[in-house]
Amino acid sequence: MRMRILLLYLLTNTRRYRHWQCYCITFIVIAVMFMFDAAFLTKTTPKTRPHSRKSLSATQFFELINSKYGQRRILERVEMEDGTHLFVFDQWSLGKEILVKRTITGDFVHEHSSVLLETPAELSEINTDTTKWSVQHGLLRTGSCYQLLVETVFDSGAIGLSHSSNAKMLMIGLGGGIVNGFLHFYIPKMDITVVEISAQMVYIARKWFGMHFNDRHRIVIEDGAKFVEKEARNGRKYNAVLIDACDSLPAENVTIICPVSVFLEESFIKNTAQLMTNTGVAAFNVFSYTLTSDKVRELLTHRFSKYFDYCNTKETKVRNVIFYCMLHRPREEKQIDLMQFVQNIS
């Protein structure tokens, strides 16, 4: 305090005397004050502890993530074009190993898309940031609607299961890009077109699910029904058409939430049939709170039978049903071993 008073005195009296000694003393006082403040800040500023690279057990690592983020980590809240919001979050569980799942949801109850992340080889404090973990594009959860959608394409015989296949596939609905990402990962020559109505969903898929597109794996931001109508009018043909698009704001009286109702209208069914090659397949991810698998097959077969000769269903381990149709009844339906195919390539 005395030093500050002295400084004030010198500064106010320098103008009166304007002696060079006053300037020197003033400079020295300022320098001393600066060193004093710097020393004080050094002592009082907390030191940041560097992240440790010490190897941890799976249990220790799991507890460390829980203590840092809680039971889940919300990565982003995204406002969609219709005013609704989607959340992207990571959530972890511990069994024989740590599993971290990245999910898109609107209410933290129902999943839009989810995928497992690649656990780092080194379990240490420096690797607890899950945003830096890679997405496992080459993995589909057993019994999930994603796995059954893919298996339906090959079981039906619409496309041969081969790493070198160059078949043409159209997908309506992107989500996190789980199915198209898997197919492009293992069958890079397959010609995949994904149509997604929401630019915000494409943003989520790119940023949080590691989606990259190229000339064999392309994205079109457009209304799916209008795109199919245009493709049918232009005489385009596809070996498979997959529909995985759900209603984010279903009305109370809607019994089928997936797919969106427009994809069950006669005009869309007709246009889809026109896109099919002779042995092609159209497969729909269907979700209903009230309808059983048999009821879904009965209801949808009635709608589709005017344009497709053969329809059937596959049941997932959850409430989803895969409903698929072909222009002609296949000679036989195979039971391909998708996991064996993956292992052979890996």
From TrEMBL:
Coiled-coil region: none
Pfam families to which the protein is assigned, alphabetical: Spermine_synth
Any single biological process term in GO: polyamine biosynthetic process
Stretches that traverse the bilayer: 20-41
Record keywords: Membrane, Polyamine biosynthesis, Transmembrane, Transmembrane helix
Keyword Transmembrane: yes
Identification of the protein by name: Spermine/spermidine synthase
Species annotation: Ancylostoma ceylanicum
